[in-house]
């Protein structure tokens, strides 16, 4: 599952083949290449193939942080960066990586090999849908009898000058984070999103006496898919939270916007519009085509004729993802308190004016550890108007 924990709704939702890595079992060592101190690749990473490859340090080519790995060649050889990672046997793992390419080849791969050298899983990249945007490669595999796997990202060069930049390769054995809904992420088949819209009916929020701090946010946004101090996020929606004292708790509903620009967080800011249970809310975030640093955030209460439109500048934004999300904020992946039941129905959902069926979408789901309850989206459907509909619901784990 993607790491999607970029300080979201921070104010209202208090609190995401070298030698074997020293990182914990099932995690990638130096996954973002920030521990690399020279242009030459060093442990826990290693190179495969004979051609030019290394580390870009502070050159501005990274997905997050300051560094990224690169390969550049004009041969027809296989070249890659790779790492041998300890894993638990017979375990399902989720492998993610980000790549950006010169666009003149189609035979790049991110994948994993077993101890016998056989490919266990891999995904092809190379088709550049959005020039300059990093592409996400996401896949799942079972480790089988292996206690080590070799992760790799590379390509077979086309015989002319070409390159790939690589960053943020992660491995996880859990599909859960603190978001539930759908994400459209820049990938070999998805263009980098520039607009997202959705309508929902604000649900009645029930405060759990045992967890007086529980809160729930419903929002749409652009750019929030990765976790990094250099990332950006632009979002608008409604958050419900418990107020009062234990034994006398009541829910409060607050419309909000929030912007994170290169890790600098506005924290959640109120939007002067009323929101109450049963109200139909409509939200959108749109990146300007004329000025990519400028975003328009819009929130409407369709039941009460309330309307607010805000313009925000986010110079670091790359618009590499769009999200329609129900979220419980948290300070760690294991400190997540959700309501016992959730049912949020989304309608009129579009990304760049198209329904979710036009994209390779990623479902996001969460889990409440003490109850075992799983929160996630139902399959998205497309109505005759070209809009998508889905619900985020709770179910037994």
Overview of this structure, please?
The chain has strands at residues 46-48, 53-57, 67-73, 78-86, 92-101, 108-113, 119-125, 135-142, 148-156, 162-172, 176-177, 179-185, 195-201, 215-222, 233-245, 248-261, 264-265, 269-270, 280-287, 294-301, 306-313, 321-327, 343-351, 361-368, 373-377, 381-382, 388-395. A hairpin with a 5-residue loop joins strand 6 and strand 7 (119-125). 0% of the residues lie in helices and 49% in strands. It has a 17-stranded mixed sheet that branches. With 397 residues, the protein is an all-beta fold. The chain starts with 45 loop residues before the first strand and ends with a strand. It contains no helices and 27 strands.
The number of distinct helices, counting runs of at least 4 residues, comes to 0
Principal-axes geometry comes out as globular
Structural category is mainly beta
Strand content: over 45%
Binned, the helix content reads under 10%
How would you sum up the major sheet? 17 strands, mixed
The radius of gyration computed from the alpha-carbon positions, rounded to a whole number of angstroms, is 21 Å
Q: Write down the overall mean pLDDT.
A: 88
Number of DSSP-assigned strands: 27
Catalogue the unreliable spans. 1-21
C-alpha end-to-end distance: 17 Å
Topology as H/E string? EEEEEEEEEEEEEEEEEEEEEEEEEEE
Please summarize what this structure is.
The protein has 397 residues and is an all-beta fold. It contains no helices and 27 strands.
Highlighted features:
disordered N terminus, mainly beta, five-stranded antiparallel β-sheet, 17-stranded mixed β-sheet, single chain, 397 residues
């Amino acid at each position: 599952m993607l790491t999607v924990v970029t300080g979201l709704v921070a104010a209202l939702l208090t609190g995401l083949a070298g030698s074997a890595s020293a990182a914990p079992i099932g995690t990638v060592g130096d996954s973002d290449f920030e521990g690399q101190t020279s242009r030459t690749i060093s442990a826990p990473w290693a190179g495969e193939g004979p051609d030019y490859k290394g580390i870009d340090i502070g050159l501005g080519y990274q997905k997050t942080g300051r560094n990224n790995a690169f390969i550049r060649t004009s041969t027809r050889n296989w070249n890659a960066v790779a790492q041998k990672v300890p894993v638990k046997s017979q375990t399902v793992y989720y492998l993610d990586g980000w790549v950006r390419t010169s666009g003149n080849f189609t035979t790049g791969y991110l994948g994993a090999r077993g101890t016998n050298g056989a490919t266990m899983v891999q995904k092809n990249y190379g088709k550049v849908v959005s020039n300059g945007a990093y592409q996400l490669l996401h896949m799942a595999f079972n480790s089988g009898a292996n206690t080590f796997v070799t992760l790799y990202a590379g390509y077979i060069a086309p015989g002319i000058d070409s390159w790939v930049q690589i960053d943020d390769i992660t491995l996880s054995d859990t599909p859960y984070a603190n978001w539930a809904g759908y994400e459209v992420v820049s990938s070999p088949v998805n263009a980098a999103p520039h607009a997202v819209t959705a309508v929902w009916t604000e649900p009645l929020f029930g405060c759990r006496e045992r967890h007086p701090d529980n809160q729930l946010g419903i929002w749409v946004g652009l750019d929030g898919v990765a976790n990094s101090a250099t990332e950006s996020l632009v979002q608008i929606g409604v958050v419900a939270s418990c107020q009062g004292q234990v034994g006398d708790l009541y829910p409060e509903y607050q419309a909000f916007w929030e912007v994170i620009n290169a890790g600098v967080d506005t924290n959640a800011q109120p939007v002067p519009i009323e929101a109450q249970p049963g109200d139909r809310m409509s939200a959108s975030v749109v990146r300007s085509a004329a000025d990519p640093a400028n975003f328009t955030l819009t929130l409407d209460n369709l039941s009460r004729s309330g309307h607010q439109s805000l313009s925000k500048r986010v110079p670091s934004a790359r618009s590499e993802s769009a999200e329609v999300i129900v979220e419980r904020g948290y300070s760690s992946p294991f400190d997540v308190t959700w309501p016992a039941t959730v049912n949020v129905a989304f309608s009129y959902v579009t990304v760049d004016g198209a329904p979710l069926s036009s994209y390779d979408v990623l479902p996001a789901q969460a889990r409440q550890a003490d109850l075992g309850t799983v929160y996630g989206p139902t399959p998205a459907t497309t109505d005759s108007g070209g809009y998508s509909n889905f619900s985020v619901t709770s179910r037994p784990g």
